[in-house]
Predict the structure.
Amino acid sequence: MNIVEQKASKETDKLKKIDFKMVSFTLSGKDYGINILKVKEIRKAGNFTHVPNTPVYVRGVDNLRGDIIPIIDLRIMFNLPAETKEAGGLENIIILRMDELVLGIIVDNIEKVVGISKETIQPPHPIFGDINVKYISGVVENEDRLYIILDVDRIFGYVPPVEERQQIAEVKTLPPMEENPATDKRPSNESVESLDLQFIKETLGTFSGFYATALNQDWLKFHAVEWKTQRQAQGLDFQLTNSEDALEFLKVFPSPYTGRLWDPSDLSILFEHLDFEGTQITVWNPGCAQGYESFSLAVGFLMKYEEKNIKVWANDKDLLSISMAPSLSFPSVPEEYKPFMVETKTGYQFKTELKSKILFEYHDITHMNPFSDLHMIVARDTISFLKPQDQEKIIADFYEKLRVGGYLILGQNEKLSNSAEWKTVEWDDWSIYQKI
Amino acid sequence: MRVEYINPFVESAYNVLTEVLGGEVKRGNLFLKSATKPVLGVAAIVGLAGEVEGRVLFDMSKPTAIKIASVMNAEEMTVLDDLAKATISELANMITAQAVTKLHELGFKFDLTPPALITGDNMEVSDQEVEALIVPMETEHGSVEINVAVRERS
């Protein structure tokens, strides 16, 4: 036997060895399969009893020879077009059994039972856009048709991991309109708006690592409307489809003086609003990037309190930015900064004396750190870029690490919602809070 | 971890490893780690004291340690015996010492403790309130992770 023949016979061997059977069916023209061991039976039924307050994909319950089972429309669940049957029309249903859990799923057409070899199942590819990859257990080709094998245990959350349970819970709480744009009822304006906002929130997280929470929701709501009008006037889609869009959207988020030295007069007004006791003042500046903010703060402090000492702990988790921070130089600087700087060949640099007051550290603020009894924390436009659960943790952490009367400065567009523990320091639209 | 400290450690690890092993050494991406971290099998620890407090840990698998020790001693070794262990400790010492010398030139002064070598399976390392900077180094004989956890005395 030559090699080609050997190979061919191996191929047929592979096909012959059938050790996996699945029930195949279609959803909007595509072929899917479910492990036959999960399938109890197939049947046609209609006139399901509607159950109020359930997600839109739950079509109701059905009486299966005395057992009441939920009926789920898989097409609606996966946001695929679903043709609506006239009243009394029968739907194709696959009854699934996962240990004790029995439920029916509605699909377009139920085809047949396909026998395949487990070895020919390939892992799912992320481009199967219709259905989230985590719900697919594999892909298999049989008689020139490509079947996507669904993992029903995961879809119906039979002992799902914690994270998924949260997601399912989230889905359930959304108003039905958001979940199924395919339904033919006219959506009210309000829900379209919240759907837009929801979409923007999600894409911001994906494309730019900006997470919408209570901290920035006021800004986000306001800016989303602004953004939509602006984009529509330009004839562009308001939805964020890539990271450039997300960057464009966030362009107006940063607080004043991001990436440059602060204006000296604003700096002195800021320090007029702040009051520090003691002689050794400790400031924490997480998310300091290239350090402009840290230097500005130190200068502002020393302009007000000549006799006091300041120590700034400046952190960032971007290694490249923070590595440059200790040796920043400027072609020109405002007059007020000059006493703290020396002129070198490459421009103005901060004096060693001032540099020694600032400690730049490569540090991730979601990790532990030993700071305590701080006089001030300046974290502008930093927390919004953390995961929602981290945001909450960090704010609690800030409260813990500040001394009583200490200040927390957040980004202009970030507001604390739980202000029972904090007193707001009023100045323009800055977000300055004092620990009570 | 103070930014000024990072480069001396990365540079000296690269220099020393290239020098003693002779082959090509590649540096992986640096990252920070705060949770408990598994140790590959052979770990050499050098303590730091002075203006800072902390430690540097050199972590590698046992086969890698034996191969590195073989190259450094110019003889074939098959087990991690006393000589091999002393060799790995010496490597840790050389890298840390060179880094500390560089830092000294920059005006940061701190002292070293003699290296300690720990071997075993399924070990983990945890640091209280200090996050560790991980410098992964890929050598011809396997990977060596340099795990630096230091903090300023506040």
Residues 194-252 of chain A form one domain.
